[in-house]
Amino acid sequence: MEEWLFLLLPVAAASGWFAARRHYARKYLIEHTHSLRKAYCRGLNYLLSEKTDKAIEAFVDLLTNDFETVETHIALGNLFRRRGEIEKAIEIHENLISRDDLNLQQQESAQFELGSDYLRAGLFDRAESIFQNLVDHENSRVGALQQLLDIYQHEQEWAKAMVCTRKLQNLGKPPKRGETAAHFLCELAEATLCNDDDMTARHWLEEALRDDPHCARASLLMAKLEMREGRFEEALQSLKRVESQNADLIQEIIEPLRICHDRLENPPGELIGYLGYLYETYGIESAALALAERIRSEQGSSKAIEHMLRVLENQPTPKSLNTLTGFLLEEGADTQREALIRLDRALDRMYSNAPRYTCAHCGFSGSELHWRCPSCRHWESTKPS
Ligand SMILES: [Zn+2]
């Protein structure tokens, strides 16, 4: 919305222009200014009520009369672009650039908008060359780098995207969508991994970790590379690094962790210990399930069943239930009955604590049915859950 406000600038400019021509008949001046203001107000009103068609009509009308300011042209072009009429936007902005009465800043603004038109039209090469030019100009530098960053990501030009990200960071403007140099380095590494160029991939990954020591993705990729090269001990170290880098991604290391341990023929207790630690510390279900499988193969099914019952008593989920029933199917009637009694109690506890009614509007939940939600005050939004 704010950018429409600068449509007001021409009104201000108009005042200056008219002031310079005081020798004109005062009456004419007053009338003319009045009619321009009226025309602008009409255009603005259309804009504010989102009647862009009529707004464009009103502004085009103004332009073709006698009031050709650069800002109005730029704004009009932007309006066309926003409506998806890219050709018209391009035409207006291109015309503007070919004019020779523009000051440097106006030239830059017009270039920037034309670049944005090209980008919107999918003409990435043209957009790229405009924004590359604008990077050299201080006023447009940040905007141009942001646009270039979008272009390079779209084109999967990761090395160039990385350079933009670093420049933006140096200017104190972190990229808008969480872009990091480390992510782009990982993209480069993935591409080289696909081409079996392990040495280059390792180089990118090491650089990613230097750039961002918390880049869990680089560790996961490094582990993949090391496993491929049969270096399971190193892979294990890379996988274990993920915990301190981003605990939310621990689930991703469980399966490769198991493979590494198997290939290294490590003492059985080692993996059981580490999985147990991950489950106890972070409550990660996949760690609990991998642990159950490992306990079953190393220590027998009764220990595995006991472990799964504790997991379920802690937090029953369909997946852990499924694992337990799988184990129980292979057991005798006594073990099954004993386990079922514990399971039944755990599920009872879960359902007695669970809220019975939830508001579909705000998510408020409780054990009573409210015809009007006590939290968001909506009527009849609370439903049995
Ligand atoms: Zn509510």
The total count of strands amounts to 3
Multimeric status of the protein: single chain
Distance separating the two termini: 42 Å
Stretches where pLDDT is under 50 for at least 5 consecutive residues are none
Write a brief structural summary.
By secondary structure, the chain is mainly α. The protein has helices at residues 2-5, 9-19, 26-48, 52-64, 70-82, 86-98, 104-121, 124-134, 141-154, 158-170, 181-194, 198-211, 216-228, 232-245, 254-264, 268-282, 285-299, 301-314, 318-329, 333-353, and strands at 357-359, 365-366, 382-384.
Topology:
Layout: H1 2-5, H2 9-19, H3 26-48, H4 52-64, H5 70-82, H6 86-98, H7 104-121, H8 124-134, H9 141-154, H10 158-170, H11 181-194, H12 198-211, H13 216-228, H14 232-245, H15 254-264, H16 268-282, H17 285-299, H18 301-314, H19 318-329, H20 333-353, E1 357-359, E2 365-366, E3 382-384
Antiparallel strand pairs: 1-2, 1-3
Helix pairs in contact: 2-3, 3-4, 4-5, 5-6, 5-7, 6-7, 7-8, 8-9, 9-10, 10-11, 11-12, 11-13, 12-13, 13-14, 14-15, 15-16, 16-17, 17-18, 18-19, 18-20
The structure holds zinc ion (ZN).
Zinc ion binds at residues 359, 361-362, 364, 373, 375-376, 378, 381.
